[in-house]
């Protein structure tokens, strides 16, 4: 029952909110059974805070009940704006794929923010990935669209989806056409940083601490271990997660694997991960310059971090997608 003096609050899944967007109403957090005002209208939630919520397993924020309608309209508008940003990248004829991508980002956030890995969410993500990959081949969509089905954002959920789409694009460009292989690479890429998202926020707060360094070093193994507990995912998926920071020259982590000891699909995801990270660091430079910088970085590698046999076709494919 509500009384006259205390407003009622309604939960809003954090996965529905976009970081760095000016809020339309005040936002509250539920702390020790009390609603505490966290942000005023016109404020925004930064990407850093957004990702911190992930590590704190914060799934929802709250708004006052009387703001519900305004808030729902605002949510719809910001979602449309976000989809439009991707449509501008791929073209109006691929709006359906841009919408599908948005749904995957939301689901990734929910999955990463939940305290425990939710089997149902993983299986929904698997179906969403299957559908996206199937629609690319059925509708004969140009492969480069997959690489452009990305959004500039340093948020971990957006980054995970970017890496998944770029990885599948690279895999296709290198001749991996089997649905099974593409699904595995998609899921491996989507969850590559799950272990990082599960580093406790207390550890993340102090990068000078040895616990922080160890947690970062071990995040591929931690993520792979957590994912391996989910039925229905193939070993390839966990291998990709475990190896996404290994390098061709043996200077990667956590196991300093070398060259041919690294699984081929892990190499693709490792490259897509570095590529998207460099893009995120150069977002302010505009699309053309951002892609140029990221490709230039890969060209300078000359087979140190990345397998030289695989680097040349990967760079060629990236040029094709982002020219
Ligand atoms: Fe990582």
Secondary structure elements and pairings:
Elements: E1 9-13, E2 27-31, E3 34-39, H1 47-55, E4 60-64, H2 68-90, H3 95-113, H4 119-138, H5 144-148, H6 156-173, H7 179-190, H8 194-197, H9 201-204, H10 210-228, H11 235-243, H12 264-281, H13 287-301, H14 308-322
Antiparallel strand pairs: 1-4, 2-3
The site of fe (ii) ion has 6 residues, from loops.
Characterise this structure:
With 323 residues, the chain is mostly helical. It folds into 2 domains: 9-77, Molybdopterin biosynthesis moea protein, domain 2 (Alpha-Beta Complex), CATH 3.90.105; 89-322, Hypothetical protein af1432, CATH 1.10.3210. The protein contains 14 helices and 4 strands. The chain has helices at residues 47-55, 68-90, 95-113, 119-138, 144-148, 156-173, 179-190, 194-197, 201-204, 210-228, 235-243, 264-281, 287-301, 308-322, and strands at 9-13, 27-31, 34-39, 60-64. The strands form 2 sheets. The chain has a two-stranded antiparallel ribbon with strand order 1-4. It has a two-stranded antiparallel sheet with strand order 2-3. β2 and β3 form a beta hairpin. α6 packs across α12 (264-281) and α13 (287-301) runs antiparallel to α14 (308-322). The longest helix is centred in the first third of the chain and has 23 residues, at 68-90. It is globular and about 65 Å long. The model has no long low-confidence stretch (mean pLDDT 92). The structure holds fe (ii) ion.
Total number of beta strands = 4
Going by helix content, strand content and strand pairing, the class is: mainly alpha
Order of helices and strands: EEEHEHHHHHHHHHHHHH
**Strand order of the biggest β-sheet:** 1-4
Beta-strand proportion: 5-15%
Domain tally: 2
Biggest β-sheet strands, sense, barrel: 2 strands, antiparallel
Low-pLDDT stretches: none
The whole-number mean of residue pLDDT values reads: 92
Number of alpha- plus pi-helical segments: 14
Helix content: 55-70%
By CATH, the superfamily of the largest domain comes out as Hypothetical protein af1432
N→C terminal distance: 60 Å
* CATH fold-type name of the largest domain: Hypothetical protein af1432
Instruction: Specify Rg, calculated over alpha carbons.
Output: 20 Å
CATH architecture verdict of the largest domain: Orthogonal Bundle
């Amino acid at each position: 029952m509500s009384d006259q003096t205390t407003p009622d609050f309604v939960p809003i899944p954090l996965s529905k909110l976009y970081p760095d967007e000016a809020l339309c109403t005040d936002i509250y957090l539920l702390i020790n059974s009390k609603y505490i005002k966290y942000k005023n209208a016109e404020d925004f939630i930064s990407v850093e805070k957004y990702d911190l919520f992930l590590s704190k397993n914060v799934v929802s924020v709250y708004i006052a009940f009387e703001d519900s309608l305004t808030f729902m309209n605002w949510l719809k508008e910001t979602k449309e704006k976000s989809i439009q940003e991707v449509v501008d990248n791929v073209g109006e004829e691929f709006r359906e794929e841009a919408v599908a991508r948005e749904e995957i980002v939301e689901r990734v956030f929910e999955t990463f923010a939940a305290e425990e890995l939710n089997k149902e969410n993983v299986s929904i993500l698997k179906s969403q990935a299957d559908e996206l990959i199937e629609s690319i081949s059925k509708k004969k969509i140009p492969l480069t669209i997959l690489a452009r089905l990305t959004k500039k954002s340093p948020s971990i959920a957006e980054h995970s989806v970017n890496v998944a789409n770029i990885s599948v694009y690279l895999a296709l460009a290198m001749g991996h056409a089997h649905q099974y292989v593409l699904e595995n690479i998609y899921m491996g890429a989507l969850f590559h940083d799950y272990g990082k998202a599960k580093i406790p926020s207390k550890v993340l707060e102090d990068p000078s601490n040895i616990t922080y360094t160890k947690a970062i070093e071990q995040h591929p193994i931690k993520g792979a271990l957590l994912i391996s507990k989910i039925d229905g995912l193939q070993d390839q998926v966990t291998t990709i997660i475990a190896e996404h920071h290994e390098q061709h020259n043996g200077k990667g982590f956590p196991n300093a694997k070398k060259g041919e000891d690294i699984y081929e699909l892990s190499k693709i995801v490792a490259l897509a991960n570095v590529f998207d990270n460099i893009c995120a660091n150069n977002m302010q430079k505009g699309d053309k310059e951002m892609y140029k910088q990221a490709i230039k970085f890969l060209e300078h590698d000359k087979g140190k971090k990345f397998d030289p046999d695989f680097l040349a076709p990967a760079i060629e494919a990236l040029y094709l997608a982002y020219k």
